Structure formats: structure tokens, C-alpha cells
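Hi R.,

Here are the chain sequences for the assembly we discussed:
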Amino acid sequence: MGRLFAVVLAVITIVSAAIFIARIWWLPPDISVLGVGIDHQMTETMIASGVLFVVCQLVLAMFVWQYGDAGDARPIKTFPGGATPMVVIATILVSAEILVLTLVGTKVWGGIFLSPPDPSALHIDVQAEQFAYYFRYPGPDGKFGAIHPELIDDGNGNFFGLDPANDTAARDDIVSASLVIPVNKPILLTLHSKDVGHAFYVPELRIQQDFVPGLVIPLHFTATRLAKEEIVCTQLCGLGHYNMRAYLEVESLGQFQQWLKDHAP
Amino acid sequence: MRTRLITSLPLLALAVSAMGALSAPVKTAGGVSGTITFTGTPPRMRPIDMSKEPSCASQHPTPVMTETVMAGAGNTVQNVVVYISAGDQAGAAAAQPVRYDQKGCQYVPHVLVMQVGQPLEIYNNDQTSHNIHPLATINPEWNKSQPPGTPPIKATYAKPEFITVKCNVHPWMHGYFAVLATSHYAISGNDGKFSLAGLAPGKYTITAWHEKFGTQSQEVTVSASGTVTANFVFKALPY
Ligand SMILES: [Cu+2]
Ligand SMILES: [Cu+2]
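And here is the predicted structure of the full complex:
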């Protein structure tokens, strides 16, 4: 029985390591500037924790095979116990590894969440609601109209609560259900929610950020390739959560400018 | 068996004659007809982006527009509910169900008129789930999920009310229920025209309701024959 367990343990270890090494269920290709750093960090974490995982599991299997229950019915006298110096050294080594991964990873994370956006970034306002996203561009005047929640009228296409009758800055705001952006241009999103918590997740951009009702959360990125990808909500937000998505369309600058013209209100 | 048939015959005859009396045209009856127009600039209708629901978006080769103000040639307005708001005789509740469709992630018709107590049947013709939510304030408010291929939702409204209808899944889906206490109503077509027929002679108040422009009423006197003209002119603002 002990030997069978050792074999099962070894098989589980090898199969799960093989799934990662063969890159089955791997991340989709990265299309963003910051994605390179994230993927690098991801690979390092995978290798460091993967090597530890495989070595530990195989050593465990070996010990089970070698020293498994041989019919010795004597109770264990002390637990925990045994090779104290080895346990201490192992704990310190693992802690150091996690600490190093965290420190290196913070740099990449900070590049997304702690550094300011490029000053030339294209600002797009994003509103999440049950169960759709709406994206707002400032229009030719470069200014967003003020938001008046009491004026929100989804049925008439006023998803943001703009007041074009009195607010001239709001008149040229372009509102879209798809996030259309030019390639290689820094993008700044400001995320806010109309109702409950939602999330903005584009695996290809390697970013995921929650919407929090009452907060305006900035998020910036640059897409490096023409693409059409799905934006999905990863925060359970109600009965239509499974169906909450939009499309990210990365276009050439010319296409994007044409798109803006075609969608002028 | 035979005796039962014989005894039920007089009953059947009675029922048939009663039905005849109900559906027979009233001989001395006039009507009201007219045209609904607006002055000013109405808001521009916007294309609806349904890209998040590909099974609906693919049903519309050209983008669907919002239907708030559906203007026709000569500044006519569609989807105006015209009905008798005072002076009407009480009639029997309509038994024929009215049908409301969810098709291509739109409500069809955009404005559905029904009588108080009339059965309402709501169908989902789409490959996606809808959650219809009529925002009633006088009648009880409810919302119901309807996955594709499920039977129609049945409902009735007991009190007259204009009810905004929305879908809790698709924010752009938008329509109205006009629940009326009269059987004399009409809804204007693209030419802005309406006509109310079969009115007994007398004085009536007729009301025109539009989702954006609001309501207007006027008094009319209907004679034993002939049709009275009553036009409505609404004021439109661009925003
Ligand atoms: Cu959501
Ligand atoms: Cu719906």
C-alpha cells in the first residue's frame, strides 16, 4: 500500500509538471507593453515554484517508497521532531525565495498600478453596469461632459447621465459599447460602476482590475498589436454576470480616427 | 348523451346570440381621427450597439436605432397612444391576450397597449436569456428571467398605468406597456395618424401620450354619425 501511494504521488507530480512544461492551458499571447514583464515574472515564479514542487514531491515519494510502513506497530514517540536544523534551513530557504519573488514582482506590479500614466495617454472613461460596459471618448473638444447619475437613461442611450441640453462639453462625447483604441498608444481608463462591483479583465493585456462603486479607478496600458479580444467581468455581479462582456478592438491610428468620426453623436 | 345535448342546445343558442350582440356594430356611432405632429427639433435617434450579444447583433444587418422619437415625413410622430380618458362607457374586460415579443434583443412592439385585466403574454424569440422588468409603480412591480425556448410569461395589470419596460440583462432594451381603462384606443403609425371608431354620441376627453413628449388632452363631441377631427401638436426639444 505504501509503495502504491509513492507511485501515485510520483505520477501526479510528473503529469502536473508536464502540463505546465508543454504549455497546455497556457495564457493567450500577450499584446501589451507591460505584459512582457508580467510574463517574465510569471515564468520565473513558475520555474522557481515548479522546481521546488517537483523536487519535494519526488523526494517525498522516494521516502514513502523506502521507509513506508513495514508492519512496525510502535507508536511515534515525538512529533514534531526529527532533524530540527534541516527543518529550520528549509523554512528559511523557502521564505527567502518567496520574498525575492515578491520583491522582483512588485516592480512589475508597480509599473501598472503605482506609476502614473504616460502624459500623452488617450483618456477613455469606462462605466460598468449590470451587465455591460460602456466606453466614453471626450470628442473633438478633448473634454468630458460632467456626469449626472440622475440623468442616466439606458433606454435612450444616455448610459453615463450626460446633460447635453445644458453642458456643451457633453455634446460631442462619443459613447460606445466596444473599447476601440489605436495600437501603440498609451491608454488611460478611468473605471467607475453604476451599480455593483464589476471587473475589467483582458487576459491578452495581462490586466485585471475591479470596479468599485463610488470610486474612480485609473488603469493604464498600451496595446502593441492589432487585435480583437474579449473584455470580461470576473467579479460575480448578478444573474447576468456570465454574459457580461465587451470587445477590445485595437486598430491602426487611421482606422481609429475614422471610427471616431463615424461614431460622432 | 342525447338528452344532455338537447338540454344544452338552448344554452348554446343563448351564448351565440349574446356573442352576436356584443360584436354587432353599434349602428349610431361616430369616431375621432387625427394626426400627431411636432414642432421644433426632436432628439436624434442613436444606433444601438449590441456587440456584447452576438446572437442578437447578427439579426440586424444594419444597426437598430433607439425608438424614443420616431418621426415621419412632415414631422409626424409614431407610437403615440391616443385613448378616451373620460366619458367612455364601461366595457367588458378584453379576453384576447396581447403579445409582447423579445426579438433580436428588442421589444416588439416598442409600445404595447392593453386593457386593464387583459391577459399579457411575453415571448422570448432569442437565443439568449432575457429578464423582463416592467417598472410599474401603481401596479405591482416584478421582473422575470426567461431563458431561450421557455414558455411565454403570463401577466395582467389591474390598474391603468403607463409602465416603462426594461431588460435587466441588456441595458439598451426599452419599451412601454400602456395599460388603459378603455377599449377605445389607437396607436399612431409612421404617418402620425390615428382613428377611434365605434363611439356612441356624446362628449369625450381624448388623451395622447408619448414617451418623450408627455401627454395632451382635448375635449371632443361625437355626433351620431361622422368623424370628428382632433389633431395633436407636441413641442420637441433636441435634447
Ligand atoms: Cu459584472
Ligand atoms: Cu434582454
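Chain B has two helices and 19 strands. Chain B has two domains: 1-88+184-239, 92-181.

Let me know if anything looks off.

Best,
T.
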